[in-house]
Design brief:
Elements: H1 2-10, H2 12-16, H3 23-44, H4 51-56, H5 58-82, H6 84-91, H7 94-105, H8 112-129, H9 139-160, H10 167-189, H11 199-223, H12 229-235, H13 238-249, H14 257-280
Helix pairs in contact: 1-11, 1-13, 3-5, 3-10, 3-11, 5-6, 5-9, 5-10, 6-9, 6-13, 7-8, 7-9, 8-14, 12-14
Amino acid sequence: MVIVSMFTFGTLGLFINNIAFPSSFIALCRSAIGALMIGLYMLISRHKIDFSSIKQNLKFLLPAGIALGFNWICLFEAYKYTGVAVATLCYYMAPVIIILVSPFLLKEKLTPLKGITSAFAIIGAVLISGIVTGTVKSAKGIFLGLFAAALYAGIVMANKCIKCLSSIDVTFVQLGIAAVVMLVYVLLTEKISEFTFDRTSVIFTIIVSIVHTGIAYLLYFTALQSVPAQTAAITSYIDPVTAIILSAVVLNEKMTIVQIIGTVLILGATLFNELGSVKKQ
C-alpha cells in the first residue's frame, strides 16, 4: 500500500500539466473531495472523531491546513513554469528546510552530520536549478517549488507539535480547513464563470482529487500502522524517482549531467538524514 501510494503521488505532475484550470481551483477540488472521501471512510469504519483533542490542537491544525492549500498552489504552478522533475526536486528540499529551522523553532540540535548533508542538498538544488550552467528555465518556477517546500516543512513541524490525535483525524481536519480557505481564495481571485470546463481537465481533476488524494492518503496512513518506519522512509523516495522518470519518458523533460548530479545530491542527502533519524528512534 505504501508503494502504490508513493507511485501514485509520483504521477501527480503528469495530470496537473494537462489540467487547464487555475492551480487554486485544483487545490480546492483536491482538498474538498479528499476530505469528503476520508470522512466517508471514517463513517464506514466507525472511526470516532476526537473533537476534544482537535480543539486542543487547533492552534497547530489551523495554520497547517491553510499552508496545505497554498503549498499545492505553489507546487502546481512550479510544474507549469519549470517542469515536473525540477519542481519535484525543489519540493524535496523540505526535509533540509526542516533540519535548518528546527534548532530555532523546535529546539532540536543541528548535528555536524545533518549540517553536512544539508549543505550537499543545497548544492544539489543549485545544480538542478540551472544557475551553474546558465540554463535556468524559470527562476519563478524554482522559487515556487522552494516556497512549496517551505510550506510543506511548516506543515510537518506543526504536525510534530500535535498531541493525542490520530493521523487520519489530522489529515481530515487539515484537508477540511484547506478546502474552506481555498474556496474563499478562489471566489476572491478567480471568475469561475469564465472557466473552460473541457473534458480532459474535468476528468483529470476528478482523478487527482479521488485517486491522488483520497485513495492515496487512505492507503498511506492505513499502511503506516503496520509498516516499519525505515521501510516507509525508503519507499517514500518512489515518489520523486517516479516523477523524474515519467517526466523524461512521457513529457520529454531531459536533464543535463549537472542536474542529474544535483538530483543525486538532494535525494541522497535527504534519504541519509531520514534513515539516520529512524535509526536513532
